[in-house]
Amino acid sequence: MRENPRPQRTSLRRARTITASVVLASLALSACAGDQSALDPAGPFAQAPHDLIIPVAIIAAVVFVLVQGLIIFSVVKFRTRRDDDGSLPVQTHGNTRLEIVWTVVPAVILAVIAVPTVQGIFEQMGEPDGDVLTVEVIGHRWWFEYYYPDYDIYTANEMAIPTDTPVRLEMTAADLARSPDQGVIHSFWVPRLAGKQDVVPGQTTYLNIEASEPDRYLGMCAEYCGLSHANMRIRIEAMEPADFDAWVEGQTTPADVPDDGTLAADGRALYHDLDGRQACATCHQVWEGEADRAPQQGPDLTHLMSREEFAGAIHELDEETLRAWLEDPNSLKPMQYEVNGIGMPDLDLTDEELDALVAYLLTLDPDA
Ligand code: CUA
Known about the structure:
The protein is an alpha+beta fold and 368 residues long. It has helices spanning 6-30, 44-77, 96-125, 241-251, 263-272, 319-327, 329-332, 337-340, 351-362, and strands at 133-140, 143-148, 153-156, 158-162, 167-173, 186-189, 196-199, 205-209, 215-221, 233-239, 309-310, 315-316.
């Protein structure tokens, strides 16, 4: 007896297709929500592109349905039928009116969309109105450095900003003179606060951000920049202006020098002199008030413990992780110090040295 296996197989295949579609659709839609969604704008510079995305998406959806509808209609209407004699349907070549219509209509749509698009681009990059806070952003492999020229503050990974204040980012990638092998392009993107802007060595690019509510806004480097590109995150801490003033006051206070004879004092000595190995102070800065602060190759550590995360904002900043980092940085974040001097070197520290350095770093807290 012969059975026809086809109906069963077809329904199985259909069930699989439906399951796969649901999984794919939910994965795709899950990208539309959450901490890093451009569809959940939290300030005017994110609202503008959002208000452009929605109508453009609607127009695109209408065009999509129209074009796909016509294709499906043609496929169904002109399909081969059982009683066909094998001859082709009537072939049409050239229709001037139709061709003019389908050229002019998209051109008009694009021209209409172009006006708010170009306007929006200039709003994202141009000098904003009102009291503006300037923050210089320097993209390094693989972390973001922030400098506040009004206050002479250097920090890394986490940027503090006051709410309801336009913040103008003046961005560049690590200067070629400062670190010759770090000239790669990064991209600064915090979707809830603004559009995306490239961060280019030897050039200054601009991006305006503003947060309407105090919150933590997350972002990441959005341009492939090498090994730890995926470990190059951005955290923006938006706070009430009074809290921001307090933050500025803490950050502009010089770091405390630990008392002589303490473990932290030993750590401070090692920070400056690691007995022939490359000392921390070669690349990092702990500003003790003696001179102006200056840009460094590595993150400024003056008020390290005022930050919640480190290493490109991928690790929580606590004693245990800090110790693990000093012991073997590459195991916490892949870098290439041994290959081309990028990132944090393995300093071959003894247990005693680790204890002392960690004790010292933990004192670097403006609130302590
Ligand atoms: Cu920096 Cu990707």
